[in-house]
Design a protein that fits this description.
Keywords: Amino-acid transport, ATP-binding, Cell membrane, Membrane, Nucleotide-binding, Translocase, Transport. InterPro entries: AAA+_ATPase (IPR003593), ABC_transporter-like_ATP-bd (IPR003439), ABC_transporter-like_CS (IPR017871), ACT-like_dom_sf (IPR045865), MetN_ABC (IPR041701), MetN_ABC_transporter-like (IPR050086), NIL_domain (IPR018449), P-loop_NTPase (IPR027417). Homodimer. Forms a membrane-associated complex with FtsX. Part of the ABC transporter FtsEX involved in cellular division. Has ATPase activity. Pfam families: ABC_tran, NIL. The protein is about 35% helix and about 30% strand. By secondary structure, the chain is of the alpha/beta class. The protein has 2 domains: about 230 residues, P-loop containing nucleotide triphosphate hydrolases (Rossmann fold), CATH 3.40.50.300; about 80 residues, 2-Layer Sandwich (Alpha-Beta Plaits). Strands 6-7-8-3-9-10 form a 6-stranded mixed sheet, with helices on both faces. β12 and β13 form a beta hairpin. α3 runs parallel beside α5 and α4 packs across α5. It is globular and about 80 Å long.
Length: about 325
């Protein structure tokens, strides 16, 4: 659905002979139709620049961006304006017009798109019902809570029936409870409307709650990406460390701790006690967590194995026991 192919974005450096600033450095990434895909990274990682290149607010220096097979980097003028209607954007700070009512804010994009007046009113009414604000049509933004403002922003973004919904830190200004409500709404809309959702965030909770896939950016590069369940099952994954943080092993166990990773299987089973009973090997739990990710229970547990009589440990036996139960063992 969306593919970035060796995308570069440079800005002129400050000063006469200054080197250019590299904001995006050879970014290649594919987002499948119908996915909710999260781009994680710290401030300055290149996340928002990537989004701005996608919706053509910035021109790429080189590389190609394709949406549904169409090369967006080559579009200009009327052709570009036409395909832009395939994308809706939800902003961090809502960007509502204070002088307009909720109804008129949602209608604004349709007016710009040249929709007939008689078609605008039923579409706006439909959208306000969809986002749960049918009674706020004549209210002004100043009369709304943060969550209600963002619902208006979602309705406005969906007005032109886009295929792709872009979220630029769309929940950063909201409290945790409202954030969960907005994310659940977005997921429901994706399921009902077949949207592809690309969200930019620095919040692990956002990715953990609704994303199917994710990428981690740093210094303008994609350093890790893939299916979220596969990533959190990978002991080497940096994204997994952010979504299910475990901390470092205690000094007493440094060098001999191991990581148990599991998806669905083993979450509610007494694996540790069963292992100790069957093998006679003690297990020290150093840290761990079970989270709901992409609709699945995912767990990571940092442990240390110890033979009670000082005997050696059979690594093959340990791995066999856990692997047979769907649990990955790694350093």
């Amino acid at each position: 659905m969306i593919s970035f192919e060796h995308v570069m974005k440079h800005y002129p450096g400050r000063g006469k002979n200054a080197a250019p600033v590299v904001a995006l450095d050879d970014v290649s990434l594919t987002i499948e139709q119908g996915q909710i895909y999260g781009i994680l990274g710290r401030s300055g990682a290149g996340k928002t620049t990537l989004l701005r290149c996608l919706n053509h607010l910035e021109e790429v220096t080189s590389g190609t961006i394709r949406v549904a097979g169409t090369d967006w980097t080559s579009l200009q003028g009327k052709e570009l304006r036409s395909v832009r209607r395939q994308m809706g954007t939800i902003f961090q700070h809502f960007n509502l017009l204070a002088s307009r009512t909720v109804f008129d804010n949602v209608a604004f994009g349709l007016e710009l798109a040249g929709e007939k007046k008689q078609d605008i009113a039923p579409r706006v009414t439909e959208l306000l019902d969809l986002v749960g604000l049918p009674d706020k049509a004549q209210a002004h933004p100043s009369q709304l809570s943060g969550g209600q403002k963002q619902r208006v922003g979602i309705a406005r973004a969906l007005a032109t029936r886009p295929q792709v919904l872009l979220m630029d830190e769309a929940t950063s200004a909201l409290d945790p409870t409202t954030t969960e409500q907005i994310l659940d709404l977005v997921k429901d809309l994706r399921d009902r409307m077949g949207l592809t959702v690309l969200l930019i965030t620095h919040e692990s909770d956002v990715v953990r709650r609704i994303c199917d896939g994710a990428a981690l950016m740093a210094d303008g590069r994609v350093v890790e990406h893939g299916n979220l369940l596969e990533l959190v099952s990978d002991p080497e994954s940096r994204i997994a460390d952010q979504l299910i943080p475990l901390g470092r092993a205690q000094d007493a166990f440094e060098g001999r701790s191991q990581l148990l990773s599991f998806v669905n299987q083993g979450v509610s089973e007494p694996l540790i006690s069963t292992f100790t009973r069957e093998t006679g090997i003690n297990v020290s739990i150093l840290g761990g967590s079970v989270e709901q990710i992409a609709g699945h229970k995912v767990g990571r547990l940092r442990v240390a194995f110890d033979h009670p009589h000082g005997g050696g440990l059979d690594d093959a036996l340990i791995r066999q026991f856990f692997n047979e139960r769907g649990v990955t063992v790694s350093k």
